[in-house]
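Supplementary Note 3. Input sequence used for the single-chain structure prediction.
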Amino acid sequence: MPTEKIISTVMFADISGSSPLYKKLGDNKANALIQRVLSMLTDVTSKHHGIVIKTIGDEVMTYFDRSDHAAGAAMEMQETCRNSSSDFPLTLRIGIDTGGIIRENNDLFGETVNNAAYLTSIAKGGKFYFPKMHLTLST
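The predicted structure, written as discrete structure tokens, is reproduced below.
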């Protein structure tokens, strides 16, 4: 696939606290729980007209044509995690940015992608940051 530069909204959603979960539950049970959450993140992304680019460990990278769709997905993801009936509740750290991206070989690159990843790294569990919409929401 050729390189394509587009304006889009990129979102990373990271499952906070997954590393200690493996120590507490063991590999198989923790992995099963993480996979259920990643599946939920994928479903919510699709519901809000987004596309999952890839999962990276316990994190999902997505993009949306409209920033309001990304914000809606982030709110639903946080709400779903918060209301989970799991014995081991998990929270999400989410970062979102809008701008020019390079789409190449089913992956995304560029400053917007790096900004979204950075915002995820500084988010606390249960929050998402989306500075271009002036949103910092806690759940």
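The longest strand covers residues 91-104. The CA atoms of residues 77 and 99 lie 22 Å apart.
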